[in-house]
Amino acid sequence: MKITTKLSLIVLLPLLLLVGVGTVLVHFNRLLKTEAQRESVAVEAMRETFELNLLTHEYLQQRTARTEEQWRQKYGSLAELLRTVEFSSLTDQVTLAQARCVVEELKGLFAKLTASPVVSQGLEDRVVGQFLTESRSLASLTSALSRSASRARENAQRRANMLTLLLIGGMAAGVGTWLLLLSRSITRPIRRLHRGAELLAAGQLDQKIGSAARDEIGELSRAFDSMAESLRQRIAERDQALEELRRHRDHLEELVQERTAALARSNAELERFAYVASHDLREPLRMVTSFIQLLDRRYHAVFDAEALQHIHFVIDGARRMDTLIQNLLDYARIGIHGREFATVDCNQMIRTVFRHLAPSIRDTRAVIAVNAPLPVVQGDEVQLVQLFQNLIGNAIKFCREGVPPRIEVSGWSEGADWHFSVRDNGIGIEPRFFERIFVIFQRLHGREEYPGTGIGLAICKKIVERHGGRIWVESQPSDGSVFHFTLPQRPSAKL
């Protein structure tokens, strides 16, 4: 049975019982009214009989027309009252019939008394005696009817009260029993369902409700069991997939570790090779430069202009080669000969950078503003000097023609990092070259326009990454550039 049907019965059953109780109460109410009316009639008849007897005695004493008229009116009222009343019990019906007969007898006797004013004394005495006897008999009969009607009304009232109590008790018991059964049929499955949900939440996926009820709770219980079974299957499939994924992950981690170790070894070997090769290349290059310069000084007067120009080309190329090798040495030295991190006051460090760049600043009339105070960081001071020197040096070098460089250096705290920026008013960079400029040997301009080797920003990137930060640029052509980089406030390693 559906819960909605049960709930409907909860409403309908009391209504039906109330209708039944109401019907019974209406019936008994009518019965009580009938008995009360009979009792009232019987009492009225007894009172009318008493008054009729009083009028009889008064008439026998006075024999006036007014007394006779009063007697006849009272008689008519009593006769009508007895004629209209009805009783249910056989005894009362017999008593009522006797009272009606007595009333008729009284009518005849009173007629004899009033028929002729001149009658013998003996006849009148007999009629009066018979009249009084019948009057007393009528009083006794009406009194009996009154008592019987009163008992009948009281009995009906008791039966009505008892039946009402029985019906109310029965209705309460029936409704209570039905509510109890309904409560058990709803609350018990709900408690089982709640317990099953708690066990399922605790990880006991083999828990089943197993309800065979045909109501909504039964359907919910079966759906719960189906869900639990589906969940068990999905968790089993997930565990299997996770286990397979874990195996693949472990395998990939082993491969990554192997490749990372191999790459680290390769990079270390490459950096050592670049350092050694660059160092070894500088010695013969210095020798070549020295001998060419010696030839230039000794035979300057002998060589013609073209030969001297060739000698100058060789010397210039050798110097640029030496600068390139020196930059390569600096690039390789970042990972090989880096110092342990220490406390670096960026305000003092920036003054060192200004001393190194003093000639360039003076020649270009550059204006450099530092938004002091700059933070105190943890890092390799030599490399940080090189980082700021490269960024500020680029800002001085890549200036617009006829416009003195204006450079702004800033540093502030941002989350767990120190954020630095170097802003200039130079030639700017197209956004498509933002990544390219940090790659070694990548130049955006010819050597005739702007001197350099194309390693400076690559060195900056490597220094920043060694310190655990990142570097990027914001720029538009002819609108200057802003180079940003971050340094962790608490470096995780000191390389």
Notable characteristics:
single chain, 495 residues, alpha+beta, Four Helix Bundle (Hemerythrin (Met), subunit A), Heat Shock Protein 90, five-stranded mixed β-sheet, two-stranded antiparallel sheet, 70% helix
The CATH architecture name of the domain at 3-190 reads Up-down Bundle
**So what's the overall shape?**
rod-shaped
Task: Estimate what percentage of residues fall within beta strands.
Answer: 5-15%
Biggest pleated sheet:
5 strands, mixed
How far apart the termini lie comes to 78 Å
Low-pLDDT segments, ≥5 res: none
Structural class estimated from helices and strands: alpha+beta
CATH names the topology of the domain at 3-190 as Four Helix Bundle (Hemerythrin (Met), subunit A)
